[in-house]
Write a structure and sequence with these properties.
alpha+beta; Immunoglobulin-like; five-stranded mixed beta sheet; 8 helices
Length: 725
């Protein structure tokens, strides 16, 4: 910025910093000199005649030839560094036919062929410095099919193929100066897919590939002799390939710009929308693999394709150059910041020289480089913190954020963020970053070139924020910058508050449980007292009434017995019935008799004398397993009444000889079933009676279900099925 310099300094990354007097600070990146340029310099005749380059060729003597847009043909002698310009001269019929050129190449005979956009093709005789013109003649069918020519290709047999815009593909016979035409015929699928031809190539298997603006064409002449191909007597078999939206293995786009065959036999095709790879093993049934921006390309428009000595692929695009590293299929991109002529390149303007350098042309000249010289900078750029924010406001810290090691935040500061930067100034906008918050993020978060990270709604605790970055060439420095972040909890989440709360809740629970246990014990003592009082007081009184009735009956004179004997017998019978009922009540309220075992035993004891008198056998099964099964008083009462009634009915009506009471418990589900071997009955007819109806209602009342299974001459089975607690 100024010719008056004051200081020069080289930093650790290799950048040169220059301090000037009045011109500020300048930075120079020596890495940009890895690319050399061919440019058009105003008022300098020893430069390109025009900035836009459409084609580049290296002749057998090592000179470079450039086909320019509206600047004619340029020759650059490497040995002398001098340019020669060949331009159209209306007064000279042996000058080049146009300044608007699209392609230049040299055939095996040493002739230079030039394609123009509006005046056919030209052949340069270098000795005489004369151009021979070949233009379209509508009166001559053997002339070139169009004056708008985009490419010229010489196959290994010496055949010269011409790709035109609008006229299809031409094959030129240099011996007869006759052109054979291959054009699109809409009704013929064995013809070219389009008449706009951009690129031509014959692969190692002898198959021709023709790139057009509407599809890719494969021309197979089988084993036809080169002479028959040159004269047009051999008819190729043409296969067309198009993009299909439903087929991921089809071409990525129909507008095909470039073709390249790699040393391993793979074919590469550049299109207006991505790079395509056809592996050699898939040639017979083509399966195209696509590479797009999402895969790492800087741009989807692939103008030129070259291969370096290592077998890696280089492409020119509409946004710089890209290097595809095989076989890991990673891309490294280059643009003007690296020293390119421009980010925009052109179709057909690419060349690999005999020395191994690559040249790509574009809208501002051409760029040359040796692929093996483009080494990534080994500089490991340190990453620093440049800002810390709470709710997007710069936080007040006790020291500069660049040196901070620990930050303590309140739980109220539930949104905070960091800014950071990698200290490489060669191409700072390319520096990439990854960060993580240990204790939250499961791994590194790749943020690309974004230089900040934010977090919100974090739980209280300790975290470690880490960030790392790359230099401008994408080389990571694995030594990350870290800072501890402590978020203090609200008082209700502190250990002392939680401990006090646990103690308080525990105290309340203990109090409730203790109080409940006291209540249950009091109820049990009351039940025991009621049972004892009923048995000792009321039971004894009823027994005394029954005995006194019998004594009075015995002492009455015979003449009086006929009047009061029936009433005295009724008093005794009623008293004995009340004694039995009282006995049931005493058993029911007695807490020492609340097991399922006691229930079944009680049922057996109740009918023992009656069953003995009637010669009916009563058997209870599976009793031992029921001693630890306790029932609520209500469950005991209802189950006792259900099966009391069932046994009573069996004794009275079944005329059987056996009654069996069986029980089982599965979890909380109790199953009780009573069976007899009596005469049975019709359940449908008996269901209308009150007895069976009451039994079902009692079962339903305690959440169970009662099933009655019986039929004449088959016995009876009564089953209770329900949950107990």
């Amino acid at each position: 910025s100024s010719n008056s310099l004051r200081t020069i300094y080289e930093d650790r990354s290799g950048l040169i910093w220059i301090g000037t007097l009045g011109g500020g600070l300048n930075m120079f990146d020596p890495g940009t000199e890895r690319f050399s340029q061919y440019r058009s310099i105003k008022d300098n005749p020893n430069s390109l005649s025009h900035s836009i380059i459409w084609s580049i060729m290296e002749s057998s003597d090592g000179d470079l030839w450039f086909a320019t847009h509206n600047g004619g043909l340029n020759r650059f002698k490497r040995k002398t560094g001098k340019y020669s310009h060949f331009k159209y001269n209306a007064a000279d019929p042996f000058s080049i036919s146009s300044n608007n050129l699209r392609f230049v190449m040299q055939d095996r005979r040493g002739k230079i062929w030039i394609a123009t956009q509006d005046a056919g093709i030209n052949c340069l005789d270098q000795n005489q410095k004369k151009f021979t013109r070949f233009r379209h003649d509508s009166n001559h069918p053997g002339s070139i099919s169009s004056n708008n020519v985009r490419t010229i290709y010489e196959d290994p047999s010496g055949n010269l193929w011409i790709g035109t815009w609008g006229g299809g593909l031409d094959l030129f016979d240099q011996d007869t100066n006759r052109f054979v035409h291959f054009i699109n015929q809409p009704s013929n699928p064995n013809s070219l897919s389009s008449n706009n031809v951009i690129s031509i190539y014959q692969d190692s298997e002898g198959v021709y590939w023709v790139a057009t603006t509407d599809g890719l064409n494969r021309l197979n002449f089988s084993s036809a002799p080169p002479a028959d191909i040159r004269t047009g007597s051999a008819i190729p078999n043409i296969t067309r390939f198009f993009h299909k939206a439903t087929d991921p293995n089809s071409l990525s786009n129909n507008y095909v710009l470039s073709i390249h065959e790699a040393k391993n036999g793979d074919l590469w095709f550049g299109t207006m929308l991505g790079l395509n790879r056809l592996e050699k093993k898939h040639r017979s049934q083509p399966l195209f693999k696509r590479y797009l921006i999402k895969d790492g390309l800087p741009n989807d428009m692939i103008y030129g394709i070259l291969e370096d000595a290592e077998g890696h692929i280089w492409c020119s695009t509409n946004n710089g150059l890209t290097h595809l590293n095989l076989p890991d299929e990673t891309f490294k991109n280059y643009d003007m910041r690296d020293g390119l002529q421009s980010n925009e390149f052109n179709t057909g303007a690419y060349l690999k020289t005999a020395e191994g350098s690559m040249i790509f042309g574009g809208v501002d000249g051409a760029t040359e480089f040796f692929p093996d010289s483009l080494m990534d900078s080994p500089y490991l750029a340190p990453t620093v913190l440049t800002g810390f924010y709470i709710f997007d406001q710069a936080a007040a810290l006790n020291r500069a954020v660049t040196g901070i090691e620990e930050i303590t935040l309140s739980y109220k500061d539930n949104y905070f963020s960091f800014d950071f930067a990698a200290l490489d100034f060669s191409k700072p906008e390319r520096n990439r970053y990854a960060y993580m918050l240990e204790g939250l993020d499961p791994g590194w978060v790749n943020s690309g070139t974004r230089r900040f990270a934010g977090y919100t709604q974090l739980d209280a605790g300790e975290y470690i924020f880490k960030v790392k970055g790359t230099n401008g060439d994408g080389v990571w420095n694995e030594q990350s910058r870290s800072v501890r972040v402590i978020i203090t909890p609200p008082f209700w989440k502190t250990w002392w508050f939680i401990s006090l709360l646990i103690l308080a809740v525990s105290g309340v629970i203990v109090f409730i449980i203790t109080n409940r246990v006291k209540q249950l014990l009091a109820i049990e003592r009351l039940r025991s007292k009621i049972a004892a009082d009923l048995h000792d007081d009321i039971g004894a009184g009823l027994t005394e009434i029954s005995i006194m009735g019998e004594v009075i009956a015995q002492k009455l004179p015979d003449q009086s017995k006929q009047y009061v004997n029936a009433e005295l017998q009724k008093i005794g019978s009623t008293a004995r019935g009340l004694i039995d009922s009282m006995s049931h009540i005493v058993w029911l309220v007695n807490p020492k008799r609340d097991s399922l075992f006691d229930l079944i035993s009680r049922l057996g004891d109740t009918y023992s004398q009656l069953l003995t008198a009637t010669d009916i056998q009563f058997r209870a099964e599976n009793l031992d397993a029921l001693k630890k099964v306790h029932l609520k008083m209500e469950h005991r009462q209802q189950l006792f009444m259900i099966f009391h009634e069932a046994i009573n009915n069996s004794v009275k009506y079944s005329q059987g000889t056996e009654i069996t009471l069986n029980s089982s418990l599965k979890g909380k589900k109790l199953i009780l079933h009573l069976t007899d071997n009596g005469r049975g009955f019709d359940v449908e007819q008996a269901s209308s009676g009150d007895g069976l109806k009451n039994m079902r209602e009692r079962a339903k009342h305690i959440g169970g279900r009662l099933s009655i299974i019986s039929a004449p001459k088959t016995g009876t089975k009564i089953e209770f099925n329900g949950n107990i607690s």
